[in-house]
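Predict structure. Chain length: 191.
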Amino acid sequence: MQTHTAFTALILVSGLSSRMGQDKALLNIQGQTLLSHMQQLAFAVSAKQVLVSRNQGFIHDLAQPMLHQQGPLAGILASLSHCTSDRLLVLAVDTPLLTADSLQLLLNAAANQATYFTDSPLPCVLPVSASLANQIEQQLHAGKRSVKQLLDQLGALSVASSASELLNTNTPEQWQQCLNVLAHRRDYAQA
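Prediction complete.
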């Protein structure tokens, strides 16, 4: 069952990629950049709008000087004033194994409340509101940059997921593991 409530997607690309040794967003995955792959995934689940938050500047740079390098919460906060929907699907660029089916499950479970997968705070769905922006600002000013802490404060719903889809690719070894999983998926689908 597909959700029909409009939502905006935000792709967080604000890390420094220091452990990877190169810009993760520009890694090649099945003939496209990882950023393009995640944008296509967002549109595959019917995102009305896709925003990108990136410290280094990019087409849709949402970074604000006071929030520079303050982690994912700062990217979420910066995106809120650009949202054209009342729900925000937050994706990390470095989770390329996510599938549209899993994201659809998360969106359907969300209704009007914050929702995330049990094994990881990202991706998550957040209800867009002035109170959410205020809550994030307060958390950042207190030096607390945890998305999980925000989700806990919001009383977010936790949804079971396939842990393998939540593989975060921060190192060359994790990236290679991701590529191996994708190759196995492709081989299995062709069999």
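Summary: The chain is about 35% helix and 20% strand.
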